[in-house]
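Recall the central idea of this unit: under ordinary conditions, the amino acid sequence of a chain determines the structure it adopts. In this exercise we apply that idea directly, starting from the sequence alone.
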Amino acid sequence: MAGPLAGVKVLEFTQIIAGPFCGMHLADMGADVIKFEPPEGEPWRLFVQLVPKESRTFLSLNRGKRGVAMDLRKQDAQAIVQEMAKTADVVVINYRPGAAKRMGIDYETLSPLNPRLIYCENTAFGRSGPLSHLGGYDIVVQGLTGLMAGEAKMEGDVPAYIYPAVADYATGIQMSNAICAALYAREKTGRGQRLDCTLLGTALAMQTSQFTWIDAFDDGVLPAFLAEIEVARGEQKRFREQLEVHDKYRPRAAGNIYYRVYQTSDGFVIVGALSDVLRRGVVEATGLSDPRMRPDGTWDLAMQLPPEQAAGMVAAAERLFLSKTTGQWLEILGAKNVPCGPLHFVEELFEHEQTKANNLVTEMAHPLLGHFRMVGAPFQMSDTPLDPREPSPTLGEDTDAVLLEYGIDAARIATLREAGVIR
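Accordingly, the structure predicted from this sequence is:
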């Protein structure tokens, strides 16, 4: 069966993570995705190469696409792309601001050629505002938006980067979501449109509760925090000291024994109980006590426990979980329907029965790297199933075939190659 986006033609001008991840999802859904790279290859292809021009990072983000290597700084290349855009459905781009216009592949150039074209551009900070002209990677946006501070893992005296690149990957999903919505809108209106996705917007969207200001509760708190944190920075306080200022105004849950990782006698177990019923299951399974539990089995989580008491509850829980194996705790907690699981490294999931049973491991063969396994399609559809078909293309693998499809004959292709327009 054909995928849900069968027949959709996508021209992809992307690099690194967000844009390629979007294009890979579109390809999984059956779209014909043509990825354009410079003749030397995009940066992620060249990152820790396993063999010349091939890397694990590129392989993992570009399956199912056709590859064209073309120098878009040259007018002949721009003319070819503009001709292709006349019959394309979607353009995906995440180049540095201003690059698309210099290459003649910006929305203002391509849309008049094809009013049905859906043009999805991803930037770090958006097209407006004082940062709009800047490029930016995931790590920069993590820092600017508070993602990194909220995670508050430390490398020495500074906050640590969250891995994997959460803003990048989530933006790739957001882009594919926006494109599918725009395709649906086009079915009703007949018109394409411009889509603007940003790492900034995605990173803020993932912090919904933290990035919500309620006047009745926050008007006195947040201005005081902002003033004090400005003083702390002016005094060159270490990040741990700045974090203490933050937690004074936005305190973390004290005495959290219900949603955390515990070390066991032979590993680790993760407990996730976020309702009164599930918290009661934890108490019944472990015998731990919590003064916040009311007689009717509900919790008064607004009760402020003294710091010593909260720390004592956590310490008692940690000692208890060390007394049994992970398997024993999974059985004990599972009997009370408490969500729980073991701690794994992702490499262990290749052979995990749950991932295999849900087709989350797919096998392919790459012409240069050989047989490999990677994550399969992350969701499925009953009538139009997703089908990860092919590995990532080698550099320029489909240049000739694509150009032939668009009416450029072999002699012209040879001339373009000799002039350095194509690889």
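The chain has three domains: 9-137+167-204+358-418, 211-249, 259-345.
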